Structure to design on (185 residues):
């Protein structure tokens, strides 16, 4: 029986997340599995990976073969490095303390990279939001100026129409007040 560490798809259309499972290679992708060792959500930035590294390492030591994607995930989480360091301990190339120190140093560096990426993403999001608000304020002020200009023009046109109407009424009143001459035939 060939055992694989692979992804099992869940979620909805265009928004999938995956369980990381240990399964028989003959089982269907989303079917029976032996054990679930974590999950992977590529929809977040950076992708969310929750993995039980000890279980994954145990299954790798038992001979389970990871698929390409799960191999990348295991590498990203440091499980493959831990397996490599354990092989060095078994061969006597280094002690368990040295292996643990190397793995801890790698883990601290990796966590620092991830946190800096999250901070830069948050900073960029805040900056883009600030720029969008400034752009919106600029557009709103331009619209307010255009509206004020249009209303001023409308007021001037209404005042001019009222003046013209008043002049026409005054002229009509003058005509009415002037004695009407009747032509004699």
């Amino acid at each position: 029986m060939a055992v694989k560490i692979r992804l099992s798809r869940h979620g909805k259309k265009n928004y999938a997340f995956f369980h990381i499972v240990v399964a028989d290679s003959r089982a269907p992708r989303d079917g029976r599995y032996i054990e679930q060792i974590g999950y992977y959500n590529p929809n977040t930035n950076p992708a969310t990976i929750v993995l039980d590294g000890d279980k994954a390492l145990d299954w790798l030591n038992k001979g389970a073969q990871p698929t390409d994607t799960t191999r990348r995930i295991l590498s990203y989480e440091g499980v493959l490095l831990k397996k490599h360091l354990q092989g060095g301990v078994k061969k006597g190339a280094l002690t368990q303390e040295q292996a643990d120190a190397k793995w801890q140093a790698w883990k601290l560096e990796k966590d620092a990279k991830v946190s800096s990426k999250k901070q830069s993403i948050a900073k960029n999001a805040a900056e883009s939001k600030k720029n969008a608000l400034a752009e919106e304020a600029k557009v709103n002020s331009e619209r307010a100026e255009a509206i004020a200009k249009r209303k001023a023009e409308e007021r001037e046109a209404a005042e001019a129409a009222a003046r013209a109407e008043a002049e026409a009424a005054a002229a009509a009143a003058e005509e009415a007040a002037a004695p009407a001459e009747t032509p004699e035939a």
Q: What stands out?
A: Residues 96-177 form the longest helix (82 residues). The helical segments are 53-62, 68-77, 79-91, 96-177.
